[in-house]
Amino acid sequence: MRLTYVNICSVLLAVFVLTACAEVPEGFISDNIFYSQNPFYVPQGRVVTSNTIQGDGSTLPLKVIPTEIRNKVTGEVVNDLFFKEYSTSVYTSSISKTDTYESINEKVSEKLMPIFSVVESGGSMLFSNQTFNIPVGEYTMDVEVSNGAGTRVVKDICTIIIHEANPLPDVHGGASAFRTVKDEEGKDVVQEIFFGFGSSTEWDSSGENKVTFKFVDKDGEVINPSKYGFQEQRISDGYKFSDSTPWDGEVPSDVSDTKVSYSYPVTPFPYSWIEPWRNFGFSFSPTGDVAKEFEAKAGFNSFNVRINSYMKFNLPGTYNITIKCDFIDI
Fold this sequence. Notes:
Blueprint: H1 2-21, E1 40-43, E2 48-49, E3 63-71, H2 79-83, E4 85-91, H3 101-107, E5 108-114, E6 116-118, E7 125-127, E8 137-147, E9 150-163, E10 173-182, E11 188-195, E12 198-204, E13 210-216, E14 230-232, E15 254-255, E16 260-263, E17 279-284, H4 288-298, E18 302-308, E19 318-324
Parallel strand pairs: 1-9, 13-19
Antiparallel strand pairs: 2-7, 3-8, 4-5, 6-7, 8-9, 10-11, 10-18, 12-19, 13-16, 14-17, 15-16, 17-18
Signal peptide: 1-22
Organism: Belliella marina
Protein name: DUF5007 domain-containing protein
């Protein structure tokens, strides 16, 4: 009986030792890994970044490697198309309000980069502005995801939709016109009347990096900035447009009889210190005899235009924006 007992204990000890020496997976890796942005839309010619991959409780960090990209319609493997390298402008550091044209140019360099890449830690998808080299269409991607607990190959994890992008900025906002009227006691009071405005934009991709604003009345006649007292104005906690171009001394680079101009060094523009969902303010306040003439024709003493600050200029060139003020007749 004693011998049997010793043998049984030896066997149990051996099993314990073998079990203790066996490799135990670290953490957990799910079978349900996915991207929350699916499909993921990529406008041609714009820098786009996705959210990180969703691990469904998997132990972090997750290592993500793209393995194959296919045309979703034909099934053709297009890895060479997506991973092809092009000379691409990249920022070595962020642009700040204290920069000059010279210092900004020093922060921008040309580098050979693939159109598409995936951040290995976390799986964010990155597209450069060279996506106009990928035909418009739908593509699907497979990835390999791993951590200390193992590896998963996820087929068709995300549909990538490459689509044509409108290079023109989204120009919206509102306007106000002011006139002096008598109140019930016969005193002069300023009355503000709110309006909308129309807009159109022309883009010259071969032009210098510049944004121009031209203001016209209901008949399309130019409202002369020099004559009618143009000035920038911060309205309702908004911006002057020159706040986005501090290297020009926070004034327009040019004000002519037909338009107001601003120069910018590189796209996308405006930069990080301009917050979206505010506005750029422009106003016309004529003085002297011109004020009398303006009031007689337009019926107002002055007016302002507020343009949304979330408009973006993503591609280089000249953008000529026309703001049509149908409430003004000069």
